[in-house]
Amino acid sequence: MDIQTLLNEMFAAALKAADPFHAIPPMLPERPRGRTVVLGAGKASARMAQAVEAAWGPCEGLVIVPHGAALPTAGIELIEASHPVPDIGSETGARRVLQMAQELGPDDLALFLISGGGSSLMALPGEGLTLADKQALNRALLASGAPISEMNVLRKHLSAIKGGRLALAAAPARCVTLVISDVPGDDLSLIASGPTVPDESTAADARAIVERAGISLAPAASAFLNSQAADTPGAHHPAFARTEAHIVAAPQASLEAAAAIARANGFTPMILGDAIEGEAREAGRVMAGIARQVRNHGQPGDAPLAIISGGETTVTLRGAPGKGGRCSEFLLGFALAAWDLPGVSALCCDTDGRDGSEHNAGVIWGSAQQAKADRRKAFDHLSRNDAYSFFAEIDGLVMTGPTHTNVNDFRVILVEASS
C-alpha cells in the first residue's frame, strides 16, 4: 500500500469506529409504558436516529441536523439548520424540541441523541435575546481562538435550552441521553453545550471568558449574563433524578482503529492523545518537531512510525479571513516546518467531513503535494488563514461529504524508515 493510500485507509478506519449505527442499539433503554419521543441535534444525529429506528421501528420525534446531512427515517422528523453559525432553522427547531419535551409525563421516555455541532444547530436564545445576538456571539467566538470548552460555557449561559435546561423541560419524564463525543476529555456538559446534563459552570465563569477573549457582547446579551436567568441547573437539581447519559462513541476508539491499520502495514503506532488543543498552526509546528526528532534521533520512537492524535485546535483569524479550517491550517503549519524532511507525510481531517468554511474533510501532505508546492506561497496562504486554497492548488484536499458522525479531528503523521 502506498503512503497516501495508507493515510486515507487510516482515516476510513477512524470513521468506521465512530459509526453510530452499530454503537447505538446496545445502549438503548427499555421502552416505557407511555410514549417514547426521540429528540436531539448534532452532526451525527441523523445516523443516530436511523440506528434507533433500525432497532425499535418507526418512532416519533425530532432531530436537528446540518444542511445537507439529512438521512431517510421512518418516523423521526429531521430538520436542517446551520453550522457553525445558527440560522432560523436552528431557532425554530430548538423551540419545537423544547415544546415536545415539555409535553412529556412521568410514564414517558425522552431519548436524546446528542453529538457535536448541536450548540449551533439547536440554538434558542435566552429571554430578551435574539437570533442575531446568538449569531454575533458565535462569529465572535469562532474568530477569537477560544477553545471549545470556553465557547460552550458561554453558549450555555446565554441559552434557553443548553446547560441542562432541556432535561428540566422534559421532567418528570425519564430522560436517557446517548452521546457521540467531539470534545477533548469527553465532558458531557460540553458536548453540544450539554442540553440534558447538569452544569457546574457559573455565569461568573462565562463573564470571565468574555473578558479574557475580548468579546464585545450585545447590550441585551451582557444584561442577560448579569441576571439570574443566566444560571444553569447543577447536579443537585431534582429534575436530574430520572436522567442518565452515556457516551456511545468517542475519539479514542477512532485513534485505536487507525493505529491497528498502521501496525498491519509495518508502522509502529504512537498515539499522542485524543484531547490535543491549541492554535492550529502552532500545533502543526510542534508535530513537525516531533517528526524531525524521530527522523534525526529515533525518538520518541524509531521509524517507520505513525504519530496519531485527536482533539480540537483553534484558529485565530488575522484580518480578512481566507478559506479553510483548523485541520487545513494545522497541516499547512506542519508542512512549512517539515518541508525539508524526507519520507514524512501527514493527513489531518475533521471526522464530520467538513473542515471549517469549505466542504473538504481536511487535507493531505506528502511528496506528491510537495512536488507541486511553492514554499513562499505557503507562507503567504498561512498569513491569510487561506490554507484551503493552498492545498486545492496542489491536489491536497480530502473530500468525503457528510460522514454522519463526529468525534473531532483526526491527525496522523507517517515517518518512513530511512532508505
Using brief descriptors, characterize the structure shown.
glycerate kinase, domain 1; alpha/beta; six-stranded parallel β-sheet; globular; Rossmann fold; 2 domains; six-stranded mixed β-sheet; 12 strands; 419 residues
Shape: globular
Which sheet architecture does the biggest sheet show? 6 strands, parallel
Element-by-element helix/strand order: HHEHEEHEHHHHEHHEHEHEHEEHHHEE
Spatial strand arrangement across the major sheet: 3-2-1-4-5-6
Task: Give the helices and strands, then pairings.
Layout: H1 3-17, H2 20-23, E1 36-41, H3 45-56, E2 60-66, E3 77-81, H4 88-102, E4 109-115, H5 118-121, H6 131-144, H7 148-156, H8 165-170, E5 174-180, H9 203-213, H10 219-225, E6 243-249, H11 251-264, E7 268-276, H12 280-297, E8 305-311, H13 326-337, E9 344-350, E10 362-365, H14 367-370, H15 375-383, H16 387-393, E11 397-398, E12 409-415
Parallel strand pairs: 1-2, 1-4, 2-3, 4-5, 5-6, 7-8
Antiparallel strand pairs: 8-12, 9-10, 9-12, 10-11
